[in-house]
Fold this sequence. Notes:
Order of helices and strands: HHEHEEHHHEHHEHEHHHHEE
Helix content: 25-40%
Number of strands: 8
Strand order of the largest sheet: 1-4-3-2-5-6
Amino acid sequence: MSQQAEELEPQDIVQETPAEDVFNAPSVHENELLSGVSYTHHAPIPEIVKSDISKECVLGVDEAGRGPVLGPMVYGVFYLPLDQHKCLLNEKYHFDDSKALKPKVRSNLMQAICTPGTDLFGCCGWATRVMSARDISSAMLKPTGVYNLNAQAMDATIDLIKEVFAQGVNVKEIYVDTIGKAETYQKKLERIFPTTMITVAPKADSLYPCVSAASVCAKVTRDAALEVCYQKVRLLGAQAESPKSIADAWGSGYPGDAKAITWLKENIDPLFGWGNECRFSWRTAKDMLEAKANGVKVDWPDVIEDEQAMRMTDFYVTTSAVDVNQETEDELTTWYGRPVAESMF
């Protein structure tokens, strides 16, 4: 199964491209990113919530980077007291869908969220799940039991919400930008979190301020993560002539972005393709690998169980095969069967 390319309008590509001086959020873990490992980051519980754990909170969920062929997909959750929801996020800071905000604006908002002393830092908590390109692809390319992108996204959402609850936060309302059919997704979440009011809706990031804030956390984390990955790739390749900024090299990372496609074509390895930064399960990457004239094709044999190989249970015989007249034998000594005689070897 391969992911189809997501088409973007030129103006969308500009909005999806990271700012050159994007804020390096604490959710950007360099070691994990460079090793291709998925990870979760939780910001500290805000003081206003920590001091009164019974305070009712609202939580929003959104993602960034679902469609790109380069870089991770990031899920974000954002929570704060219900009475601060609209007045702080909407009326004061004007949060909106991260794709509707200029890259510099969303970077500045994320910096305010992470800076002690600001009202956003004092009132709001957040967390991100960074799903690496490597892990996304390996799950989607499994020979059996394919773990598709929707299932991965739902599990990331559920895990993040559960972890916020586990910290003792009193979440009373949850708003989620939908994956697939909103009604189906909402019913699933309601079964898992039955005491919480849940709303799943398309374009929730432009309807509910807490989802907008989650979108900003996810998007800025992805932007900064892309920068880390690109600079490492650039240094490893010793390509002094390569563009110094990710905006000039990878662009947005989407298949519809000419910069991303050009970079993929110019940096393909005939055997390994690319590194941990690429989603090999995307059709864009598959087509390039198959079309490469000097590419190396590898046929992996199917793993077939050797019928002649002995299993652990073959070294025991069941009690049913034993003389039933041996009634005096302790039942517990033959509970798991008897050792096979040495003559069997």
